[in-house]
Design brief:
transmembrane, membrane, Fatty acid desaturase, mainly alpha, Fatty_acid_desaturase, FA_desaturase_dom
Length: 367
């Protein structure tokens, strides 16, 4: 599966036209590094299987810690202790939530029951069921879509105005209350008002950042999965609102604040997941890789702000189906094989702040 991912991408890379010219940006002009693509496939075949013994304890432990810390944030009277619990809950739930990324890539038969358990324990309680990412994120990995207007997860942030960066990050804080309104009000309303249902599905049912993205109507087995996940989310959301009317709003407000911090952390991570320098043209696989970011060791804090393997985001674009627990070993093997002066190492950066600084400078230079 992983080998085929890379091979298919490489075969579909754009070629020069009859005059020998390529498209206008440095991204599309960049030829593929065949040695890197070949090494990525050949050196990692033996570690390409998702290991249940890692996935299950990691997800369950993160969720358990997150909910326990959230209970502390709600129940403790000491403000500092409650604040500390809230911060811990945000980080733990952040890690638990990001398993949604793994669900979009692992084979459906790789981890029996994992998708159901994740939705039951994490996705539905936090009002982000897996359908919001499944069928969307894979479009971001399509060779002909990445970085174009058809990519749901790409905006040329480096080419936009400086004020767009804080606005982009801070709008994430509104996501949890918006999701509550979506599941408690808009989805039930859409059952009796078809235009509302169509609008909610197209515009508010995908974890995308491209404002021009419109989601297509679900079909077949996926549509059935969407129905049950929507039903679970709506019942849960309505129950939360009803309980708040009966017992007070403080627990819900605290929970929304905790999840808002989680959403903000993810939005900051998104800011540095790519360089965001493409202006909309199709890119070669190597160009896509170099427009993406790895933050490998010795960066110490990257597992906190880019957990579940997302510190190796550029490598993930080379090997989309590689399980998160194998990416560190993949990185070590490719670095050792290709060398420190290779194309592969050009996607590695020292940490969050250097990447944010680079992005900010790019926006200051944008016209």
């Amino acid at each position: 599966m992983i080998a085929q991912d890379v091979i298919d991408q490489s075969r579909s890379a754009p070629s020069p036209d009859s005059s020998g010219r390529t498209a206008s940006t440095w991204h599309s002009q960049m030829p593929d590094d065949k040695e890197m693509l070949r090494a990525a496939v050949e050196l990692t075949r033996d570690i390409a299987d998702a290991r249940a013994a890692i996935y299950w304890p990691d997800m369950l432990g993160s969720a358990t810690l997150g909910y326990a810390a959230l209970a502390g944030a709600i129940l403790l009277d000491n403000p500092l202790a409650a604040l500390a619990c809230g911060l811990l809950a945000s980080l733990a739930l952040y890690r638990a939530l990001l398993f949604i990324h793994e669900l979009t890539h692992i084979h459906k038969d790789a981890l029996p029951g994992f998708r159901f358990a994740w939705n039951l324990l994490v996705g539905i309680p936090l009002l982000i069921p897996s359908f919001m990412y499944e069928g969307v994120h894979t479009q971001h990995h399509a060779r002909t879509r990445y970085g174009t207007i058809d990519d749901p997860e790409y905006m040329p942030l480096a080419l936009m105005k400086p004020w767009s960066l804080p606005v982009f990050a801070l709008t994430a804080i509104l996501l949890p209350p918006a999701l509550l309104v979506r599941s408690a009000v808009l989805v039930p309303l859409g059952v009796i008002v078809p235009p509302v249902r169509k609008l909610v599905w197209e515009r508010a049912s995908a974890l995308s950042i491209n404002p021009q993205y419109r989601r297509r109507k679900p079909e077949g087995a996926f549509a059935r999965m969407v129905f049950w996940q929507e039903l679970g989310s709506s019942v849960w959301a309505i129950g939360l609102v009803a309980a708040s009317f009966l017992y007070g709003w403080r627990p819900l407000v605290i929970a929304l604040c905790v999840v808002s911090l989680t959403a903000f952390l993810n939005q900051v991570r998104t800011l540095v997941a790519h360089l965001w320098e493409n202006d909309g043209e199709a890119m070669t696989v190597t160009a896509q890789y170099l427009d993406s970011v790895n933050v490998p060791p010795p960066a110490l804090l990257s597992p906190l702000w880019a957990p579940v393997g997302l510190r190796y985001h550029a490598l993930h674009h080379l090997l989309p189906s590689m399980p998160y627990h194998a990416l560190g070993e993949c990185h070590r093997r490719l670095t050792a094989h290709l060398g420190q002066d290779s194309t592969y190492t050009r996607a590695s950066y020292k940490g969050l702040m250097p990447l944010l600084t680079r992005l900010t400078r790019s926006t200051l230079q944008a016209k």
